[in-house]
Amino acid sequence: MRRAIAAAMSRAKREIPHYYLSHRIDLQTAQDWLAATNAERPPDRRLLMGALLIRATVRALAKVPELNGRFEGGDYAPSETINCGMAVAMRGGGLIAPAIMDAGDKPLDDIMAAMRDLVARTRAGRLRNSEVTQGTLTISSLGESGVDALFGVIYPPQVALVGFGSPRPEPVAQDGTVAARVCVTATLAADHRVSDGRRGATFLAEIDRLLQEPETI
Amino acid sequence: MTPEDIRAAFIEDLTSVAPDIDPDTLDDDEHMQDDLGLDSMDFLNLVSALHKRFGLPIPESDYPELATTARAVRYLGKAMAG
Predict the structure, then answer these.
(1) Whole-structure pTM value
(2) How far apart are CA A134 and CA A58, in angstroms?
(3) Which CATH number does the domain A2-216 belong to among 3.10.100.10, 1.10.630.10, 3.30.559.10, 2.60.40.10?
(4) SS3 A76
(5) What is the pLDDT of residue A89?
(6) Complex ipTM, two decimals?
(7) CA distance A118 to A110
């Protein structure tokens, strides 16, 4: 496992001119909506914040579609379907990023169901080949007990990786006062052969905007 | 159910979610996330399993009560006693 990660990441750092952007997103509205939604649901229908982050990222691609695609044989090919890779930590070490196939068409509950299924099958070692090889963008989310931000290495031949640090309460200036609100730092590592910082910034801003309206996500 | 029965059932569900945890060396005060390495999906799967087994609602606001095996056994016992 470590050897496979080393090979892919060495290739990424050798061939892909990465650029990086970081943006803090206020998640308090999304967190409140999630708590109210989950309060009405039995455990096996509850949503995780990770599902909202994936749904917002996938939807934001509509605005900056060139981040979704593959750079192969010296040419970039944008992808119409969104096969959203999701970094899953293996218990015992290492990680793998199988894709939620056709994630663009999936509403929030379907994203959550796909995440559950994918994590279970990753842990059981029962992934389909296409899920491991046909990703068009990857999301790496640290969950609850990690650090503030992660700056990812793009998984070739993809051209972008979105990272989410651990959501936690932070002081936020709002209407001239400071309030404690749950925030997350979203980062983008993207391929400069395909996009630039201006487009990347539009993308992170769109993720932010979508997360401020969780009920319509 | 006695606390011993609840503990055995809890550990059965925990090790089903995280099969690498060895019940023989598990310390009842180990933290689910910090010590045992459960992520948010593992924890939700554990809550789902406990919900099915015990028929308890286990709202999110009660999640801190499941932070360790010792706390979970007390919480589940109390919740079942009504």
Answers:
(1) 0.94
(2) 16
(3) 3.30.559.10
(4) strand
(5) 84
(6) 0.91
(7) 12
